[in-house]
């Protein structure tokens, strides 16, 4: 515990008045501190000099919560912007270190942090003016999306209020495109080449709803929707997803992993695009299927359920840690056909033994992840052209290895959550050129088997946030020729 945390804990006010704590949460999370000292909660530093002070309804002086929140967001950003770890991991770590924060406090910190990551380049441009630590100005800008104007202003020094009013008046259209959209130049150039680039980029810069998927082994969507609407999930406005027959879309930040239907394995968190991908693989009862890059098992779970827990479903990955995260999910799901295997990146003997045996092989390849910027906006700052080139070499290698496992007449599905042609169409074209025994199957037709509302132009599956409301996904279905029978 640091000094400020100790001070906050030993505060007589906190000890005496739990009621005051409740009022604090209810009234825009303001801290009540009758001793009148300007001191932040949970170890963060004090408000900026000159920040406004106000009185609560019971007449006690109060600390303006936005001042506290600015310092909290500044503190998290200080860690995230080192780019050492993914932003969600750093944020979770920071929140664990501040256990006294309530759900609302956490939501506000997370909301502001992710807003800054989405608009980082533009906010850095704005932060070039003004005084004091630049991270504080980034935090203030992030909190514009969280607090009303008055609440935020109450936590700012006068100079900061003037600076904020000035930057918020800047006409976005007057900014160069890459700054306006907050993209690094290399990514701005690549995305600009795609169809309807502006709509796509704008959609990628918005936050995403949360999709869950019903487990068809345990329930069905109408039953689950009814259950959600009759219970506490109602306030998250559950609606069926438009394309996947198993998806339910929730608004806000539902704590799904604490819900009984999650613990019982009736639902799983999974973006609709990812559900559609499993549908595209279309495994059948009794088949042998390989999920070659199974990771934490998101797609494996639906593949297993579509096989009605029959046949054999290998969940391969080079990462033991990721596969370990999949195990509790497999246990909750009730699947008994999954065989998780940690493989080595090259010359794995178990992979070799499966040569030519699998009816379906899914390669959900490691990729830039740029289709998931709605959820992982830090990826645009963590990826760069060199990392992309390395990733492409890995993708080509995995595609070759996975393809060897496909049986004659079987199918290989190559997928990424990237929007870049070099990770998608170009990889498939290069693979097909080297492997004439594989031919491209029109994914837009295959997908109709399960997702009848989804009309695509084919031959690839290409999902986009601006067009389909999903993360960006790409997939290609390839079929291995059966050998000619002797005449
Ligand atoms: C996009 S993620 C997979 C996500 C997973 N399919 C899901 O739905 O949760 C890519 C995975 O590929 C794995 N990977 C990387 N190199 C690999 C290789 N050579 N062979 C198999 N898996 C590999 C990574 O560890 C990572 O888990």
Question: Keywords, please?
Answer:
single chain, 487 residues, alpha/beta, N-utilizing Substance Protein B Homolog, Chain A, Alpha-Beta Plaits, Rossmann fold, 8-stranded mixed sheet, globular, disordered N terminus, RNA methyltransferase activity, RNA-binding, S-adenosyl-L-methionine
Envelope shape: globular
**Fraction in beta strands:** 5-15%
Number of domains: 3
Structural Rg: 25 Å
What is the SS-derived class? alpha/beta
How much helix is in the residues? 40-55%
CATH-assigned fold name of the largest domain: Rossmann fold
Output the CATH homologous superfamily of the largest domain.
Vaccinia Virus protein VP39
DSSP summary: helix tally: 24
Region (Disordered): 1-58
InterPro entries: MeTrfase_RsmB-F_NOP2_cat, MeTrfase_RsmB-F_NOP2_dom, RCMT, RsmB-like_ferredoxin, SAM-dependent_MTases_sf
GO biological process, one term: RNA methylation
Keywords: Methyltransferase, RNA-binding, S-adenosyl-L-methionine, Transferase
Topology:
Elements: H1 3-10, H2 12-16, H3 18-26, E1 31-32, E2 54-55, E3 61-63, H4 65-80, H5 87-96, H6 103-118, H7 120-127, H8 134-143, H9 149-153, H10 158-168, H11 177-180, H12 185-192, H13 197-204, E4 210-214, H14 221-230, E5 239-240, E6 247-250, H15 260-263, E7 267-269, H16 272-281, E8 288-291, H17 298-306, E9 312-317, H18 320-333, E10 338-342, H19 349-353, E11 358-364, H20 379-382, H21 385-404, E12 406-416, H22 425-434, E13 438-441, H23 443-446, E14 461-463, H24 465-468, E15 473-480
Parallel strand pairs: 8-9, 8-11, 9-10, 11-12
Antiparallel strand pairs: 1-3, 2-3, 4-6, 4-7, 5-6, 12-15, 13-15, 14-15
Helix pairs in contact: 4-6, 4-8, 6-8, 7-8, 16-17
Bound molecules: S-adenosylmethionine (SAM).
Biased composition (Basic and acidic residues): 20-42
Biased composition (Low complexity): 45-57
Keywords: Methyltransferase, RNA-binding, S-adenosyl-L-methionine, Transferase
